[in-house]
Sequence to fold (105 residues):
Amino acid sequence: MTDWLPTVLATIAGILSTSSFVPQVLKAWRERDTGAISKHMYMVTVTAFVLWSAYGFLIGSWPMMVFNVLSLILSATILVFKIRNDRRKSQGARPHREPGMARTG
Fold:
């Protein structure tokens, strides 16, 4: 097999898989709506990209390193948006009470 073919295939696969996160990042950023996003799924995804990135560094595969680090950044961004938006919703759901005010009944 030609030496450059695995690198070309890895680069194409990396571009496609990494770019698949871009629409989700843009949608979460613009709409600030992450209700349909699974926090647990993105926690697993971020962990997987950390491990794949480490593996890429260990074997010296630049396509694996570059595209997994980029995917890690994008998926971590979605996870941060999800956590931030969940916190805002939970804080907004609590009734606000002025300090020092007595509870009624």
The mean pLDDT is 89.
